[in-house]
């Protein structure tokens, strides 16, 4: 099957707008372009498989495609008259089962939330304890640094005194 023999719906990726009686088209900047005809009388657009836009938009009845899967459902307000939802009566078994399932779900949800809050509080206490322990460790290390600085400065002074005393003897 050649491109020109294929149905228009398969070639409608790009369609040129052209005048039906002449083979001239308005080109870039309003210049007229002349498309030569092929020996069998077809225009270059037809030979390349381009079809008029109108044939892409309105396919024949045999080529119509089903687009129902892309159509949005009607709004909910058109399905049920407002305020008249289908609800089981409060005396029915279905209603009682739904309520029981809902009550169980609510209990589970609330228990889960309580556990989550409890775990968060527990983690906060652990972090506070760790922070306090680390603060004490920092204090201990700061005192150690201070005592080592003092010790080193004392040794430095003693070494200087010995050097000055040794120079006086010579």
UniProtKB/TrEMBL annotation:
It holds the Pfam family bZIP_2. GO terms for molecular function: DNA-binding transcription factor activity, RNA polymerase II-specific; RNA polymerase II cis-regulatory region sequence-specific DNA binding. The keyword Coiled coil applies. Residues 92-155 form the BZIP domain. Residues 60-101 are annotated as: Disordered. Residues 110-144 form a coiled coil. GO terms for biological process: DNA-templated transcription; myeloid cell differentiation. Belongs to the bZIP family. C/EBP subfamily. This is CCAAT/enhancer binding protein (C/EBP) 1. The gene is cebp1.
């Amino acid at each position: 099957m050649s491109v020109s023999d294929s149905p228009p719906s398969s070639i409608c990726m790009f369609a040129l707008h052209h005048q039906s009686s002449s083979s001239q088209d308005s080109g870039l900047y309003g210049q007229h372009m002349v498309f030569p005809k092929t020996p069998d009388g077809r225009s270059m657009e037809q030979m390349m498989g381009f079809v008029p836009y109108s044939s892409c938009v309105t396919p024949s009845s045999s080529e119509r495609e089903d687009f129902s899967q892309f159509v949005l459902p009607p709004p909910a307000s058109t399905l049920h008259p407002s305020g008249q939802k289908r609800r089981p009566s409060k005396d029915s078994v279905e209603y009682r089962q739904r309520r029981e399932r809902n009550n169980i779900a609510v209990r589970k949800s609330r228990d889960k939330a309580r556990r989550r809050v409890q775990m968060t509080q527990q983690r906060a206490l652990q972090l506070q304890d760790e922070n306090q322990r680390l603060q004490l460790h920092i204090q201990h290390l700061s005192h150690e640094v201070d005592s080592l600085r003092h010790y080193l400065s004392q040794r430095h002074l003693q070494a200087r005194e010995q050097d000055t005393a040794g120079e006086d003897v010579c």
